[in-house]
Amino acid sequence: MDKPNHSYPDEEVNFLVEGKVFSVRKKMLAAASDFFKDMFDYAIPEKGDTTSTIPLPQESVRSFECLLSMIPKESRFFINSDNVLEIFRISDKFMINDMIEKSLSFLEDNSNVDPIVSLSIAERYQRKDLFKESSKLGNPSCTDNM
User: What average pLDDT does range 119-126 have in this prediction?
Assistant: First the structure.
């Protein structure tokens, strides 16, 4: 499978991730992410900064490509047990609510596949509903009275 090309020549913003530049539509990111919407609406460039390249030193190329693949509404990006942790992490970090909800749904529907992953996310992000469902796998006598 070819890697997606997330470089758009008519775009307004560049991100620098591990030495790779991604040119991305501001409107696309802002529509999907409250984080990017606020960045584009309220951020003020530093004095003398004439570039439109935003470094993301905490991200990997793989993670950022994953994020960009998830955003379009017509995306055929699928969540699975191999990528759900990374999808949830990056979606939470950049406030992509649609993908957070899809990740949580996947974990709730598949908590029996890897209950430790589900419990970890539930605890870290204080998701009581996910914690409840994941806990039932470790203790079948759990009831709805948790």
Answer: 76
